[in-house]
């Protein structure tokens, strides 16, 4: 897209979204001056702005502190074995890779050199 056209589109959109909806049509008539392509681009962006609303202006919902112990839970192939930390809205647990052998009731252990 031509940089000058893009600049013009941005200016019109910024102005249009600040107007009341019932004032927009008259403004767009004047600002686009009969250019159907320009008008279509501007209307698409204004509609997207209206649809997005003001959700970014609102505070995120608060979830409060973690009160559930996740030790023993399974997430994908990992079993969370021991809680190693907690704070704010998070809990940290040591993961243990659950192998197919573990799921079948057999024991299987693997460790990296220097780690247990």
Name the features:
42% helix, 116 residues, 4 helices, disordered C terminus, alpha+beta, 3 strands
Description of the structure:
The protein is of the alpha+beta class. The C terminus is likely disordered. The protein folds into two domains: 52 residues; 43 residues, no CATH class. Strands 1-2-3 form a three-stranded antiparallel sheet, with no helix packed on it. Helix content is 42%, strand content 17%. A hairpin with a 2-residue loop joins β1 and β2. The longest helix has 17 residues.
Strand content: 15-25%
Low-confidence spans: 105-116
Helix content: 40-55%
- Give the C-alpha Rg: 28 Å
Annotation field: number of helices: 4
Structural class: alpha+beta
What's the helix-strand series?
A: HHHEEEH
Question: Sheet bearing the most strands, described?
Answer: 3 strands, antiparallel
Tell me how many strands there are.
3
Oligomer: single chain
Mean pLDDT rating: 77
* N-end to C-end Cα span: 59 Å
How many domains, in number, for the residues? Answer: 2
Overall geometry = elongated
Strand order of the largest sheet: 1-2-3
Brief digest:
The protein has 116 residues and is of the alpha+beta class. It has helices spanning 3-18, 21-32, 36-52, 100-103, and strands at residues 74-75, 78-87, 90-97.
